[in-house]
Structures are given as structure tokens and as C-alpha cells.
Design brief:
two-stranded antiparallel ribbon, single chain, 296 residues
């Protein structure tokens, strides 16, 4: 028995090894190397990298340092996008899942595919599509507004329309993923609960509030956390659609980190900003878990 158990454990370990190798090479080593870079004055054009300890981190919290403005202005803009986008990504994703799930089986698969297709498109294609739709002078929406004698809207060049544009593009692009996750969760809700609710005279709204939502609460938490992390990592949409404008109103933290690394060539500062950004995301995820557990 012992020999058989040992062989079983070895077999299980061999299945895990490929993932473990990729996890170490593509995640742990880059994180460790990035943390090491953040402790140095690391200029891309200078072969000598002076060790400065936590100086790069202290500069971020020094109000007299340009890094302070760079980090916290980018963080503020990133938080704005998270606050604007995440509730919609969760609520609209759930709403679409409920609508598609209520359709006849013959057409349900078609609509699932239609809504999921944009998720398979790259961010550059998404940006091109929405630039064509939202361009102030020749965009599809503004052309129709002109026909109806409605003033054109500066979607990408003025506030708050720039944020509206970024949230719309992101919602169209990623909502299919959340919808599919919610559909799978809805299919796992026992049918007996709905039958019992109907026998007790519960309306559709009451069945949604008291049966559906509590049953899919773990999935809602998962979607909420993954949407928050994805929104916190926003880069492609503002970089390609608004260039961080108007001014720096939509210039998010990742854009500032990339500029510091490759335009200013200060990898040490950029790495320190990246590590702090990762810590903030971890703290937010932990808080979301704890708040959800307390509610339960």
C-alpha cells in the first residue's frame, strides 16, 4: 500500500510540474527581478546600477518629488475607471446572463456566441472600432447626431465624455466573459428551489432576490474581484483611444509607469511604482473577500 501511495503521489506531482515550471519562470522570477530592480538607480542607458535601497519608494511618498505626482495622479485616474466600470461589468454581465438564459434552447447558443466574440478580439482592434464610432468629426454616432440636428459630442477630447467612451468600449469588449461565467453559475442553481418558490407564491423578482442571487453569490464575488483587477490594469484603451487626454485626465497609473520606464529610462522608479500598484491590488482583493465573508 505504501509503495502504491508513493507512486500515486509521484504521478500527481509530475502532472503539476509543467505548471509549476511556468509559474516560477514567468511569474515568481519576474516579480523577484522587478523587486530587485526597484532597489537600484537603474538607468537603461547606464550599465552601472547603483543600489539605493528603498529610496525609490520614499520618493513616491515625498511631496517634493515628481514621482509623487506621477504615481498618485495616475492612481486617482485608475481608481476613477475602476469605480465607473466595475459595477457595470458585474450588473450588465448578470443582466445579459439572465436574459440569454431565459431564451429558448435553439437560439441561446447563438446569443452566447455573439456576446462573447468581442472578448476574443485584441485591444488594438477594439480601439480602432471605437475610434471609428466615437470620432468627433467623422464618427458614426456623431454623423447620426448631425442628421437629427443634435450637437456633436466630443467623445474622446472632453470630460466627462472621455471616461464614458473608455467605459463603453471596455464594457462592449469584456462583458461577454462575465456573462458566460454568470450563465454557468445560473445553470448550477437547483431547479427544486425555483419550484418551491413558485409553490409558495414567489414572483419572478422575489425568486431572483431570494433564490438566484444568494445561490450565485460566490460567482458574483469572483466576477467582482476579477473585474476590479482587470480594470485596475487598464492601459490599452486610454493609450490608444484618448492618449491620456484631455490633458492627463485619463492617463492611468500603468501609462505613467511605462513612460517612466521607457521614456525617462528610469527602471528603478518604474519598478517601485509597479510593486506598490501590485500591493494595492492585493489589499483591495483581500478587503473584498473579507467584506463578503462578513456579509455572509
Amino acid at each position: 500500500m505504501r509503495k502504491s501511495s508513493w507512486k500515486s503521489q509521484l504521478t500527481s506531482s509530475l502532472f503539476v510540474l509543467p505548471y509549476l515550471f511556468l509559474f516560477i519562470v514567468f511569474l515568481l522570477i519576474p516579480i523577484g527581478y522587478g523587486a530587485w530592480i526597484s532597489l537600484h538607480n537603474w538607468d537603461l542607458l547606464n550599465p552601472v546600477h547603483q543600489f539605493v535601497g528603498f529610496k525609490n519608494y520614499t520618493k513616491i511618498f515625498d511631496s517634493d518629488s515628481y514621482l509623487n505626482d506621477l504615481f498618485f495622479e495616475g492612481l486617482k485616474n485608475t481608481f476613477q475607471f475602476v469605480v465607473y466600470s466595475v459595477p457595470l461589468l458585474v450588473v450588465v454581465g448578470l443582466g445579459l446572463a439572465l436574459l440569454v438564459n431565459a431564451l429558448p434552447s435553439k437560439i441561446k447558443g447563438f446569443f452566447r456566441t455573439v456576446y462573447f466574440i468581442p472578448y476574443a478580439v485584441s485591444v488594438s482592434i477594439v480601439a480602432i472600432i471605437w475610434l471609428w464610432i466615437l470620432d468627433t468629426n467623422s464618427g458614426l454616432i456623431n454623423q447620426y447626431l448631425q442628421k437629427w440636428n443634435i450637437p456633436m459630442i466630443p467623445w474622446l477630447t472632453e470630460m466627462p465624455w472621455a471616461w464614458v467612451s473608455l467605459v463603453m468600449a471596455t464594457l462592449w469588449w469584456t462583458i461577454g466573459f462575465n456573462m458566460v461565467i454568470f450563465i454557468n453559475a445560473l445553470n448550477d442553481v437547483p431547479e427544486e428551489l425555483y419550484e418551491a418558490g413558485s409553490l409558495d407564491g414567489a414572483s419572478r423578482w422575489q425568486r431572483l432576490i431570494y433564490i438566484t442571487l444568494p445561490s450565485i453569490k460566490p460567482t458574483m464575488l469572483f466576477v467582482f474581484i476579477t473585474s476590479t483587477i482587470a480594470s485596475f490594469n487598464i492601459y490599452g484603451q486610454p493609450f490608444l483611444m484618448t492618449r491620456g487626454g484631455p490633458g492627463t485626465e485619463t492617463k492611468v497609473l500603468l501609462m505613467n509607469i511605462v513612460d517612466e520606464a521607457f521614456e525617462q529610462r528610469q527602471l528603478g522608479n518604474a519598478a517601485a511604482m509597479s510593486i506598490l500598484m501590485a500591493l494595492i491590488m492585493i489589499i483591495i482583493s483581500v478587503l473584498q473577500f473579507r467584506i463578503s465573508n462578513r456579509k455572509e
